[in-house]
Amino acid sequence: MKYRSVIVPKRGGPEVLQVVENDLRRPSAGEARIRILAASVCAPDISSRYGHTPFAPRVPFVPGYAIIGVVDAIGKDVTNAAEGDRVAALMGYGGYAEHAFVGQEELIPVPGTLDPAEAVTLILNYLVAYQVMHRSARVDAGDKVLIVGASGGIGTALLQLGKLANLSMYGIASRSKHHILTEYGATPIDYHTQDFVEVIRKAEPDGLDAVFDGMGGDYFKRGFSLLRRGGTLVGYGNPLSFSRMLHLLGQVI
Ligand SMILES: NC(=O)c1ccc[n+]([C@@H]2O[C@H](COP(=O)([O-])OP(=O)(O)OC[C@H]3O[C@@H](n4cnc5c(N)ncnc54)[C@H](OP(=O)(O)O)[C@@H]3O)[C@@H](O)[C@H]2O)c1
Known about the structure:
CATH class of the largest domain: Alpha Beta
Number of strands: 12
Distance between the termini: 53 Å
Number of helices: 8
CATH superfamily of the largest domain: NAD(P)-binding Rossmann-like Domain
Oligomer: single chain
Number of domains: 2
CATH topology of the largest domain: Rossmann fold
Bound molecules: NADP nicotinamide-adenine-dinucleotide phosphate
CATH architecture of the largest domain: 3-Layer(aba) Sandwich
Structural class: alpha/beta
Shape: elongated
Radius of gyration: 21 Å
């Protein structure tokens, strides 16, 4: 039996993508074979296709960071999944395909009532947001935090989780998207027309407990300057400059 995958045979735009067919093998020991129902299109899929990230796999590769599917075969020694289970996996790559092979420890059960195409879009953004907020910064109710890029995919996940955690939130976004921030109780700051450092210094003279920064560049340094002593800045992306991020990290460490 054959299955189809979408491959990146060379770096470039979406026009480089090609569909290929391979033989469908049995899963190896410890692995489940997933019949993929939905794969999201994530920023890393695109940056890897262009080669705009130092973490891009070598070509050819199958992109596809996150999937939801149904287990359709299991290898020897698989104990936590059975044929017919609905599961999610954060694969890194390999998701743009009809089937994928995933180690059993990577499988996350997904309720069959959820629409797989809707639920798959949550996996990467919410995983990053949860790690940033609860595992790295370890926020407490009432903490004062700043979210840079608050209207984006991770930003809105941080807003939702921040509201659940009863945080006092400031968010940076374009004015046309400020209604998203106010919906979650955050104070919006427009990065086009306002100096966020000035606004927050005035409102929070004792400093912030945490800054969540997916932009990097100057935001990293300026966000850092807003922290109270012992506060935490979590950087989780740097589209403004990767080499500059390394330079800044070198200064901080
Ligand atoms: N998505 C993920 O799961 C994931 C995982 C790991 C790391 N990251 C990294 O996290 C960052 C954000 O990802 P995302 O998926 O949330 O992106 P996104 O959905 O495209 O959102 C980007 C956000 O950045 C804001 N923004 C754009 N240019 C800006 C500027 N010059 N100054 C301040 N804010 C600016 C946008 O604000 P407006 O649209 O309101 O202007 C928007 O809120 C990226 O660096 C990405 O590589 C993402």
